[in-house]
C-alpha cells in the first residue's frame, strides 16, 4: 500500500468498550428525567435496579443476593472497587492482584492503604494461579480478581478453582471484578467466583453496564453478603451520596431491554477480533492475543511503543498494553469498522513483522 | 478568582466527592484540619480517611453561627495544615461575613494553611447577605481550593456533578485520585451542568424567592413558639435551639414525629455538643411547609394549654 493511499490515522487507542447507548435506553433516560428523576435517590440505588441486578446475578451467574441489603449501585465500577478496597485495606495488608493487572488497580490498592502484590501472568497473558499462590502469605488480606483478566483472557474453571483454594486457605476477602461478564466472545458460561462452593460469604462481585454502552453514564454495582456490603454502602454514601439518578434509570432500561443488543454487540466484537487477528498474522506479526472477552486485542509490540515513529508512520494509533498490565504489548480497540480494522491490521502487522524479525536476529 | 482554564478545575461526581478528593490530595497522616462546629459529618470522615484529625472550632447561635477568626487562630497548633470553610453552612445556614473572610485569609497566610472553601450554597442568600469567596482575595488563590456544585443552586441533586478549583499542582493530584475513586463524572450530568451555568439564570431568582417564602413561614412559627435560633442567612436550614421545651432535641424530635408526624433532625447528628439543637429544612413545597409548621405549633401549643 503506497503512502498516498494511507488514510488519516486509524485510532484504535480507545479504552472502551465504546459501544453507543441504544436509542431505547436514551429514551428511557429522558422519560425518567421528564418524570422528575433529578433528585437524590435511595442511597444504595433505586429499588427496581437493585432488584434487577439481584435477579440477573442469580439467574445468569448463580449468585444469590438480597437487593434490599446486599446490592449497592455505584458511580461506575471504579467507585465500587474503591469503596470495597478502602473498607477492607484501610488498616493495611496486602492485596493479591493476579496479572495482567491494570496500572490503576495497583495505584488504587495503595491509595486504599494496602500493599499491592502483583502475580505475573503467563507469557500468553493468561492468569497464573500458581504465581498467585506463591505470593499469598500471612499479610495477605484480599484478592482482587478480574475475570476475564485485563487482557481479555477468560479464566477457566480449573484456574478459578485453584484461585478459590488460595482464597480459602489464606482467609482472604475476594473482590470479583467482572465488568466483561457480558462480553465473553466465545463461551458465555464461565462461572462467577461468588458462585463457587464456599466463596459467597467472602466475595464481593463488582460489575458495570459498559456492555450496554453506558460507560459515560458512570453506573455500576457491588453485591455480596450484608455484613461486607454494609460498611461499603456507608462509605459510598459518604463519598457521593447516591449514584446519578438518570444513569440508574438508564441502567435499569438496559437490563430490561438490552439482551438482544448485548448479544449483537458481542457477536460483532467476536467477528472483528478474528478479522483483526487474521490481518495482523497475515502481515507477519507474531504474539497476537485473541481475546476471549472484551473489546480489545493485544499484540506483541516487538519493542515498539505506541508513539514510536515507525508506528505513527504506518497510520495506526494503538493503545499501550502497559495500562492493562501487559507492558510491551500494543492494545487495539475492536470498536471500529471492519474495513478499518483490516486495514489497521495489515499496516501495523507489516511494521511489527519487520521489527519482530529484527529482534529475533 | 483566578483559575487556570486547562488544569485548574476538576469536575467531580458531586461536590461532596470533590471535598473528599481535595482532603486526600493535601493531607498527610497526623495533619490537623480546623473545621467549623457544628458541621456536616462527611467532612470528618474524609479527614480521618486521609489520616488527619478534625479540630472543631465552635460557632455560636448568638452570632448566627458565623465563624470567629479569633477562635480559629486560637485552635491552631504546629500540626494544623488546613482550614475548612463552609459558607453558607450546613446545618446552621450561617454565613461567614466578608470581614471575617478577610481576617481568615490573613490567618491562613500567617500560618501557611491550605483553605478548602465549600461554597455549595453560595447562591442561596437572604436579607442582602454578601458572599465573599476567600480564593478571590490577594495571596489566596495559591492556597485555596474552592468546592462547589450544581445540586443546591440549580436543584440538580440527582445528577451528581460538582467541581473543585484551585492551584494546578493540587488539581493534578485531585484528578489522579478522581480517576482512582470513580473515574470521570457522568457525561450527561456534565452537559447538564453546562446548561445550568450558561443558560438563563432567572431560575436562581425564582428559587431564591421560593426559599425566602418558606423561610418566613418557618421563622414566624418558631418566633411564636419562643424558639431561639441562629438567623439563617443562606441555604435552606435553620438550626434551632429546642432547650426552651425542657427536653432534649432527640426527645423533641421523637415527640414531633410521633404526635405531629413531622420529621426534624436532632442536632447531635452534626456534633455531640448540639444535643439541644435541631436542623429544620424547608425543601418541601410551601403548602407542606405551612402544614408541617402548623402541626408543630399545634403539638407544642397543646402541651401548654390548661388541662
Description:
The complex is a heterodimer of chains A (361) and B (307). Chain A is an alpha/beta fold and 361 residues long. In chain A, 43% of the residues lie in helices and 16% in strands. Chain A has 12 helices and 12 strands. In chain A, strands 2-8-7-6-5-3-4 form a 7-stranded mixed sheet, with helices on both faces. Chain A has a 5-stranded mixed sheet with strand order 1-11-12-10-9. The longest helix of chain A has 24 residues, at 259-282. Chain A is globular. The longest helix of chain B is centred in the last third of the chain and has 24 residues, at 202-225. By secondary structure, chain B is of the alpha/beta class. Chain B is globular, with a radius of gyration of 20 Å. Chain B has 9 helices and 11 strands. The interface between A and B is medium-sized, with 33 and 30 residues.
Defining traits:
heterodimer, A: 361 residues, alpha/beta, seven-stranded mixed β-sheet, five-stranded mixed β-sheet, 12 helices, 12 strands, 16% strand, B: 307 residues, four-stranded antiparallel β-sheet, 9 helices, 11 strands
Structural shape of chain B: globular
| Share of β-strand residues of chain A | 15-25%
Share of helix of chain B, binned = 25-40%
- The assigned structural class of chain B equals alpha/beta
Structural class of chain A: alpha/beta
Task: Tell me which oligomeric state these chains represent.
Answer: heterodimer
Which regions of chain B contain 5 or more consecutive residues with pLDDT less than 50? none
- Figure out the total of helices of chain A: 12
**Biggest sheet of chain B, in brief?**
7 strands, mixed
Amino acid at each position: 500500500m503506497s503512502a498516498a493511499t494511507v488514510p488519516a490515522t486509524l485510532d484504535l487507542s480507545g479504552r472502551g468498550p465504546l459501544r453507543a447507548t441504544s436509542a431505547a435506553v436514551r429514551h428511557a433516560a429522558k422519560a425518567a428525567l421528564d418524570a422528575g428523576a433529578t433528585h437524590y435517590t435511595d442511597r444504595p440505588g433505586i429499588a427496581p435496579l437493585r432488584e434487577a441486578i439481584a435477579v440477573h446475578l442469580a439467574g445468569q451467574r448463580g449468585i444469590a443476593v438480597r437487593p434490599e441489603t446486599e446490592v449497592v449501585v455505584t458511580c461506575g465500577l471504579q467507585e465500587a472497587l474503591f469503596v470495597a478496597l478502602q473498607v477492607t485495606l484501610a488498616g493495611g495488608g496486602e492485596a493479591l492482584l493476579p496479572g495482567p493487572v491494570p496500572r490503576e488497580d495497583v495505584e488504587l490498592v495503595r491509595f486504599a492503604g494496602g500493599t499491592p502484590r502483583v502475580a505475573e501472568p503467563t507469557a500468553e497473558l493468561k492468569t497464573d494461579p500458581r504465581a498467585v499462590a506463591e505470593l499469598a502469605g500471612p499479610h495477605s488480606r484480599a484478592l482482587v480478581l478480574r475475570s476475564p483478566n485485563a487482557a481479555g483472557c477468560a479464566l477457566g474453571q480449573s484456574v478459578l478453582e485453584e484461585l478459590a483454594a488460595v482464597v480459602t486457605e489464606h482467609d482472604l476477602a475476594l473482590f470479583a471484578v467482572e465488568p466483561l461478564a457480558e462480553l465473553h466472545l466465545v463461551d458465555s458460561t464461565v462461572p462467577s467466583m461468588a458462585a463457587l462452593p464456599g466463596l459467597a460469604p467472602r466475595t464481593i462481585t463488582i460489575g458495570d453496564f459498559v456492555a450496554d454502552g453506558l460507560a459515560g453514564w458512570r453506573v455500576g454495582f457491588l453485591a455480596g453478603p450484608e455484613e461486607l456490603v454494609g460498611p461499603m454502602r456507608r462509605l459510598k454514601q459518604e463519598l457521593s451520596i447516591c449514584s446519578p439518578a438518570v444513569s440508574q434509570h438508564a441502567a435499569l432500561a438496559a437490563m430490561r431491554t438490552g439482551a438482544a443488543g448485548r448479544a449483537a454487540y458481542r457477536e460483532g466484537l467476536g467477528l472483528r477480533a478474528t478479522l483483526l487477528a487474521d490481518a495482523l498474522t497475515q502481515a507477519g506479526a507474531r504474539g497476537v492475543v485473541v481475546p476471549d472477552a472484551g473489546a480489545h486485542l493485544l499484540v506483541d509490540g516487538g519493542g515498539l511503543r505506541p508513539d514510536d515513529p515507525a508506528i505513527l508512520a504506518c497510520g495506526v494509533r494503538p493503545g499501550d498494553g502497559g495500562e492493562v498490565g501487559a507492558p510491551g504489548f500494543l492494545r487495539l480497540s475492536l470498536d471500529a469498522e471492519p474495513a478499518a480494522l483490516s486495514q489497521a491490521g495489515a499496516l501495523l502487522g507489516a511494521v511489527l513483522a519487520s521489527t519482530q524479525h529484527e529482534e529475533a536476529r | 478568582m483566578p483559575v487556570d482554564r486547562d488544569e485548574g478545575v476538576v469536575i467531580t461526581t458531586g461536590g461532596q466527592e470533590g471535598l473528599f478528593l481535595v482532603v486526600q490530595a493535601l493531607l498527610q497522616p497526623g495533619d490537623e484540619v480546623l473545621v467549623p462546629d457544628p458541621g456536616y459529618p462527611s467532612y470528618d470522615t474524609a479527614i480521618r480517611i486521609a489520616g488527619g484529625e478534625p479540630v472543631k472550632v465552635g460557632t455560636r447561635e448568638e452570632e448566627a453561627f458565623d465563624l470567629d477568626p479569633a477562635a480559629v487562630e486560637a485552635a491552631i497548633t504546629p500540626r494544623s495544615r488546613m482550614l475548612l470553610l463552609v459558607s453558607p453552612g450546613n446545618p446552621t445556614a450561617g454565613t461567614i461575613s466578608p470581614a471575617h473572610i478577610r481576617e481568615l485569609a490573613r490567618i491562613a497566610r500567617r500560618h501557611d494553611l491550605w483553605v478548602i472553601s465549600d461554597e455549595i450554597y453560595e447562591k442561596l442568600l437572604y436579607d442582602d447577605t454578601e458572599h465573599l469567596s476567600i480564593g478571590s482575595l490577594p495571596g489566596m488563590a495559591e492556597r485555596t481550593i474552592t468546592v462547589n456544585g450544581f445540586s443546591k443552586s440549580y436543584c440538580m441533586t440527582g445528577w451528581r456533578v460538582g467541581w473543585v478549583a484551585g492551584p494546578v499542582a493540587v488539581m493534578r493530584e485531585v484528578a489522579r485520585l478522581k480517576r482512582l475513586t470513580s473515574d470521570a463524572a457522568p457525561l450527561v450530568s456534565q452537559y447538564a451542568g453546562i446548561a445550568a451555568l450558561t443558560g438563563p439564570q432567572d431560575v436562581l431568582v425564582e428559587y431564591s424567592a421560593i426559599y425566602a417564602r418558606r423561610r418566613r413561614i418557618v421563622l414566624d412559627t418558631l418566633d411564636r413558639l419562643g424558639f431561639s435560633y441562629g438567623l439563617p442567612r443562606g441555604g435552606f436550614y435553620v438550626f434551632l435551639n429546642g432547650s426552651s421545651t425542657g427536653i432534649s432535641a432527640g426527645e423533641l424530635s421523637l415527640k414531633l414525629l410521633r404526635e405531629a408526624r413531622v420529621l426534624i433532625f436532632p442536632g447531635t447528628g452534626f456534633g455531640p455538643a448540639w444535643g439541644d439543637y435541631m436542623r429544620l429544612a424547608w425543601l418541601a413545597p410551601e403548602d407542606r411547609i405551612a402544614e408541617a409548621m402548623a402541626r408543630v405549633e399545634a403539638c407544642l401549643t397543646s402541651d401548654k394549654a390548661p388541662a
